[in-house]
Specification:
The complex is a heterotrimer. Chain A is mainly α. Chain A contains eleven helices and two strands. In chain A, strands 1-2 form a two-stranded antiparallel sheet. In chain B, the strands form five sheets. Chain B has a six-stranded mixed β-sheet with strand order 6-7-8-3-9-10, sandwiched between helices. In chain B, strands 16-17-18-14-19-20 form a six-stranded mixed β-sheet, with helices on both faces. Chain C is mainly beta. Chain C is 5% helix and 45% strand. In chain C, a hairpin with a 5-residue loop joins strand 24 and strand 25. Classes of the chains: A mainly alpha, B alpha/beta, C mainly beta. Chains in contact: A-B, A-C. Chains A and B meet through helix 6, helix 7 and helix 9 of A and helix 2, helix 3, helix 4, helix 5 and helix 12 of B.
């Protein structure tokens, strides 16, 4: 599989992922979050997802956005708020009735845009990065090998655990088990026990992996060389620096604004910056 | 090259020692097979040789283990790796990198080697294991045999002076196993590599072995050259191990020759033809009509217009190599998968069929064997009294009555398989489907299991790539290749057709090859013994 | 025949409301001497959009904007709630310059007498008074109120009224020598409970170079609201209305409900007068922006919440005339009054007073009567008093009037007018009066210019009376729930 996202250096991808998460945390403005979501969507499109992946993403995000907007629209508690639709008039069932609030929709949209931009970027990175590349990336940013190796190995074996869990479910079904048929307690007990073979399998596999890497001379913390040259091109450096600069600037802006808001540090000359943060970030 | 002297080992918390008074030596360039029944301590012994047990605190070890003249205690883990490379059963959990090249590099990176050296050694190791073309291939896309060869390449790249292999072919199909054995033979004969191999498939490994160490209950009961072992198979027989077929036959016939291959065996005279068993064919129980199915709707279908029927009394072996569609067909028959087109007609009422999955461990999720067996009747709504009776009967039938209160995951592999089967048959299905029940099991366990089941069910269908098991326990063979039924008939019809078997990438046993040379349709030692004159 | 038809149409149209004419319409302009029932058509010169304030409008906050003509009437300075400060050429319709005040609103604007400097005051964390070049907008100096009045935390993004908790320039006027009078107020805390709020206010006289000539109170900011101030054009006397004390006030600059007279040159107090509450209906005295000083600095007009209006002699700090325009009357046993809200003394010596809509005094102590049982006869009325202290004329057209602007000769008077009727909706705009016309108030009304949205109390009249600027703000029509009107300035002739 080759797509622009697949070809991108994993460190760059990690930088982008980190940047997007920072934006999602720091930014509150609907427009900027919308822009972030668009960037997320572009990244996702750039990894040329399969139809199944696209379906998964569209389905999960539609559900999420709908759920979030709808719940926020109904249960928005802040003021000012304006009802744009009345589902239940006041004093029917509830003293306030059930209203759809415009500000609630907006708030829900902000929250779901946050999740969308993060989710799409995350999906794009996951769908376009092999665990091995991920390991190389983590090593390249000086994550200790032991830690990176553990994380990546855990990720690599996730699909196997999923397959094994499916097999367990199948075995249970073939043995006549149907959830809730024999009562809630029985179901909870059975559902919990369904994890047992997978956990045991995971432990066994972990032991096997440990044995395998130990017999290939792996010692935690010992000096290692690497087959892969982790060369990072000038263009990529530039991009990383730009992204870092952008995020750094964003962080500084937000920080200055917070200091201003909580009356800890204020310089009149920075008022245009405060206004910019208020309006755009 | 290897010297073990008075080795005792007891795991912390264990009641009895796992290894007792083990002493042996292995010379340079020698290939030694360690053999013994399940649980005899073979793998533990091997882990003493590869140093893993000396570098942790889970066991108390006494005695001497020396590699190339150096005591194990004085060697660090990387030093052991440079001396002895270790290969284990399951290639899937030995591979950690994304591509073959990175996988091979892993061990050398741990040794902090130069990049150029690594590249050079990767080239050599991949070439030696025949994987040069797979250099950038993702490890999970390799076949089982290729994966195990890759593990060997990883070990070879470290340029060890000896190889320690723990059942490296037990999880592989015959083709994969053949690849590994050929490779070992080459390493031994061309590179002078010292090899210690734990394996119970003696039929496969004896042709390349120099010596055999026989173990029983943590002790070394015999150390024999191959020839000495072949001369007297009684220790193997006593331990219930898989016997090499042709030596077994010749010993039964009272002959002195111990040929390991059909070509090496002297031609015996056939005194009569094997009587063709033409069983009466029962009523059709399962009808597969024009079934089309595949893994992904976007890809090509695996089965296209597949039709077959299973009759009362059928003992069907579903033969085929990996990827032939054996498991998928079983899942379709069990109703676990729904065909895209066509239909699978099963008898009413449910439960029509019981399916035992390839990995029986995934079918065991209860706290005790008895609970496991009671699970299906409980969920089928069988009244408690009747269910209890059913559970006890099933436990007895599968010979695990005394294990009723044990935790399933604490049992041996064979016991776990039988528990899994019991948990399925306690539902009293009319027919039983087993997915590769022979994997990792020794012959005695297979025989015990199969014989108990054959009589009890209208239809027993098992998928396997072991031709010997198929010959011994089936009255009908379905030869499957890439989703197509290449042959469907009685064993003597199907197993006799070497071309068809070859097309399906199924390997005949040496015995079958020999029978073919003799021109008789006999596929088990017992059958051939009947028809040839000593 | 054609002529007759034209005349019929003309009279029909004239009898109905006369529509505004947009753009260059030759002829149909306000002309001197047009009276005796003749129609005068306001000519719209310009409509200047001010930005999107729908967020505020939907939240129920009328979006403020301040407009001020330059002394020669050629330029119009506009400052908005959103912090835009614009200088517009009235006749060429060009925006000469524009500045964006970050994190604040433009509250008040005035020009230097020579028209070269424009002063504008903001409400923000700093509460700056800026002096800028009229032609370029370049800031010459700025003066920070927050140094005296303290500051508050910037409001949260969604806080509609948060900006009003910040220090701001609540009044700003230049006097003849170019000096600047500034009233700074900072009121913060819980707006829903005014008794708990904290307040600081101070009056400043700044030189054209931004130096402080004096501050009042000299010792420090007054812990109360100094509601409004006014001075004569020469700046000889400054009248300040002292209002509600802060929750933590110990010593007030002047008692709540008093007028303080300052010497314009030194900022020293020369006299004060404390108004007595109109008991039993009112326990305290309250003001809105209702103080005006006449051209000579001898007399001040004051209106109170209890509906009374006064003319005071400034040198003596004594009441000369008392007018009970909106003072309480009993209707069905319930007192009803109308607040006296705005006042001005025109250069020709005429004093203008306004009364607001009828209300029940101390309504919070008579909760069951929120709406007055009947109209106050003098509610929503413009009362005009001559120099002799006698009412010269009145005007009442069913609208509520807010604020007065008069031309330099006193002839033209402009006021914002708005009425809301349950079935007809809001009628809002501004009314121009030719006060020198003979006859009563209706005869002096030149026109009412209507806007689609609502008007607050922001408009201006050029010194020569030649042009009018009116601020329109959008509001949510309670019947349709739609946002009605635009945030814009209408410039008329």
């Amino acid at each position: 599989m080759s797509s622009p996202m697949h070809r991108m250096d994993v460190r760059l991808k990690m930088t982008i992922g980190f940047a997007m998460s920072m934006v999602a945390i720091l930014v509150d403005s609907l427009l900027m979050l919308g822009a972030g979501a668009v960037i997320g969507a572009l990244l996702f499109a750039a990894c040329r997802p399969t139809r199944g992946q696209s379906r998964l993403v569209i389905f999960s995000f539609t559900l999420l956005v709908w759920g979030m907007i709808f719940s926020q629209a109904l249960f928005y508690q802040n003021f000012p708020r304006h009802a744009i639709l009345s589902l239940l008039p006041p004093n029917v069932l509830m003293p306030e009735g059930l209203q759809v609030y415009a500000e609630g929709i907006r708030h829900g949209l902000v929250q779901s845009l946050r999740l969308i931009m993060l989710g799409l970027t995350g999906y794009a990175i996951c769908f376009s990065t092999e665990p091995g590349h991920f390991l190389q990336g983590l090593l390249a940013i000086r994550v200790p090998f032991g830690l990176a190796f553990m994380a990546v190995t855990a990720i690599r074996f996730l699909p196997i655990f999923a397959t094994e869990y499916q097999a367990v479910r199948l075995a249970m079904r073939l043995k006549g088990y149907r959830p809730l048929r024999r009562g809630v307690r029985d179901t909870i007990r059975t559902e919990i026990s369904s994890l047992r073979p997978v956990l045991l399998g995971a432990i066994r596999r972990a032991q096997e992996i440990a044995l395998s890497i130990q017999t290939r001379g792996f010692v935690l913390g010992a000096p290692r060389s690497s087959l892969v040259e982790r060369r990072f091109g000038a263009g990529q450096w530039l991009t990383v620096m730009m992204v870092a600069l952008l995020i750094g600037a964003l962080l500084v802006c937000k920080l200055l604004f917070l200091l201003y808001q909580y009356q800890l540090f204020y310089v009149p000359a920075l008022r245009p910056l405060y206004a910019f943060v208020r309006a755009w970030l | 090259m290897i010297r073990v002297d008075k080795l005792h080992l007891q795991y912390v918390g264990a009641e009895a020692p796992t290894l007792t008074d083990i002493s042996f030596t292995v010379a340079r360039g020698e290939l030694v097979v360690i053999c013994g029944p399940t649980g005899c301590g073979k793998s533990t012994l091997l882990n003493c040789l590869n140093g893993t047990l000396h570098h942790e605190s889970s066991a108390r070890i006494q005695g001497t283990v020396e590699l190339a003249g150096r005591a194990m205690e004085s060697l660090s883990v990387p030093e052991v790796c440079r001396l002895a490379g270790a290969v284990f059963q399951n290639p899937g959990s030995q591979l950690t990198a994304s591509t073959a090249e990175l996988e091979v590099a892993f061990g050398m990176e741990n040794q902090n080697l130069e990049r150029a050296t690594m590249r050079e050694r990767i080239d050599t190791a991949l070439a030696a294991t025949g994987l040069s073309d797979c250099r950038h291939q993702r490890t999970e896309t390799l076949s089982g045999g290729q994966q195990q060869r890759l593990v060997m390449a990883c070990v070879l790249a470290l340029q060890p002076r000896m190889l320690l292999l723990d059942e490296p072919i037990s999880q592989l199909d015959p083709q994969g196993a053949g690849e590994i054995l050929r490779l070992l033979d080459e390493l031994k004969s061309q590179g002078g590599m010292t090899i210690v191999l734990v394996e119970h498939r003696l039929e496969d490994v004896l042709p390349i072995a120099d010596r055999v160490l026989l173990m029983e209950e943590g002790r070394l009961v015999a150390t024999m050259t191959r020839e000495a072992l072949l001369a007297d198979l009684s220790p193997l027989r006593r331990l219930g191990l898989n016997l090499p077929h042709l030596p077994d036959l010749f010993e039964r016939l009272g002959r002195v020759e111990r040929p390991l291959t059909a070509e090496a065996a002297p031609m015996l005279r056939v005194q009569r033809e094997v009587p063709a068993v033409v069983g009466e064919r029962g009523a059709v129980l399962i009808e597969v009509r024009e079934v089309t199915y595949g893994y992904s709707r976007r890809g090509a279908a695996l089965f296209e217009g597949l039709s077959l029927s299973l009759r009362r009394g059928d003992r069907v072996a579903l033969l085929g190599s990996n990827g032939a569609g054996k498991s998928t067909l079983l899942h379709l028959l069990a109703g676990a998968l729904r065909p895209w087109k066509g239909s699978v007609e099963r008898p009413d009422p449910a439960p029509g069929c019981g399916l035992v999955l390839q990995n029986p461990d995934l079918m065991l999720f209860c706290e005790s064997v008895r609970e496991e067996v009671a699970f299906a009747p409980h969920h089928a709504g069988v009244p408690a009294g009747k269910a209890g009776e059913l559970v006890e009967r099933t436990l007895a039938r599968l010979g695990i009555a005394e294990l009723g209160d044990r935790a399933p995951f604490a049992l041996s592999r064979g016991q776990r398989l039988r528990t899994a089967v019991a948990s399925v048959v306690s539902r009293e299905p009319a027919f039983l489907l087993l997915d590769e029940p022979t994997t990792g099991q020794d012959r005695e366990q297979i025989d015990r299991l199969m014989e108990g089941l054959e009589a009890a069910y209208d239809v027993v269908l098992f998928a396997t790539h072991d031709v010997d098991t198929a010959a011994r326990h089936a009255n009908r063979i379905l030869l499957l290749h890439q989703g197509r039924v290449l042959a469907d008939g009685a064993p003597h019809e199907v197993l006799d057709n070497a071309e068809l078997l070859a097309r399906a990438a199924v390997r005949q046993t040496s015995l079958q090859q020999y029978a073919r040379r003799l021109g008789v349709r006999a596929f088990t030692v017992e059958a051939l013994q009947e028809v040839v004159r000593p | 025949m054609r002529f007759v038809l034209m005349m019929v149409v003309w009279s029909l149209v004239a009898a109905a409301e006369w529509p505004a004419i947009d753009g260059d319409v030759s002829g149909a302009v306000r002309r001197e001497g047009v009276h005796d029932g003749g129609a005068v058509v306001p000519q719209v010169l310009h409509r200047i959009p001010l930005g999107d304030v729908s967020f505020y409008a939907r939240g129920g906050l009328p979006a403020d904007a301040f407009v001020r003509f330059s002394p020669d009437g050629r330029l119009l300075a506009i400052g908005t709630l959103l912090g835009r400060m614009m200088m517009v050429d009235v006749y060429s319709r060009k925006t000469i310059w524009e500045r964006q005040i970050a994190e604040g609103m433009v509250k008040k604007i005035d020009f230097s007498p020579d028209g070269r400097t424009v002063y504008y005051g903001e409400q923000s964390v700093d509460g700056f008074v800026f002096a800028a070049d009229t032609r370029t907008g370049e800031t010459r100096w700025r003066f920070r109120l927050a140094d005296d009045l303290e500051s508050s935390a910037p409001p949260a993004k969604e806080d509609l009224f948060g900006v009003f908790t910040l220090p701001g320039v609540y009044h700003l006027m230049t006097v003849e020598n170019g000096d600047l009078l500034v009233l700074g107020i900072h009121a913060w805390g819980d707006f829903s409970n005014y008794r708990t709020m904290r307040r600081l206010s101070r009056v400043y006289r700044l030189s054209p170079e931004g130096e402080v000539r004096w501050r009042w109170p000299a010792a420090g900011a007054a812990p109360q609201s100094l509601v409004h101030l006014h001075a004569d054009p020469a700046g000889r006397r400054v009248a300040v209305l002292a209002g509600t004390p802060a929750a933590d006030a110990h010593e007030l600059a002047a008692p709540n409900g008093s007028i303080v007279i300052l010497d314009g040159a030194t900022g020293e107090e020369t006299g004060r007068h404390a108004f007595e509450p109109l008991r039993p209906f009112f326990e305290t005295v309250g003001f809105w922006q209702s103080v005006a000083v006449d051209a000579k600095g001898e007399r001040a007009a004051v209106g109170l919440h209890d509906g009374r209006s006064f003319l005071l002699s400034l040198p003596e700090a004594k009441v000369e005339h008392t007018f009970s325009f909106g003072a309480p009357i009993m209707i069905s046993g319930v007192p009803v009054s109308a607040r006296s809200t705005y006042t001005t003394i025109a250069p020709d010596g005429m004093t203008y007073f306004q009364t607001a809509a009828a209300s029940v005094p101390n309504a919070d102590s008579m909760e069951h009567v929120v709406r007055p049982p009947g109209p106050h006869p003098n509610a929503n009325t413009i009362n005009v008093v001559g120099p002799d202290g006698k009412v010269a004329w009145r005007f009442r057209g069913g609208h509520t009037y807010q604020n007065f602007w008069t031309s330099a000769d006193g002839r033209w008077m402009l006021t914002c007018a708005q009425k809301e009727e349950e079935n007809l909706g809001v009628e809002a705009g501004a009314m121009l009066f030719d006060t020198h016309r003979p006859g009563g108030g209706s005869a002096k009304l030149v026109y009412m210019y209507r806007v689609e949205g609502m008007v607050f109390f922001h408009a201006d009249l050029a010194r020569d009376g030649s042009a009018v600027a009116i601020v329109e703000c959008p509001y949510v029509d309670p019947r349709t729930r739609q946002l009605t009107g635009s945030y814009q300035v209408h410039v008329l002739r």
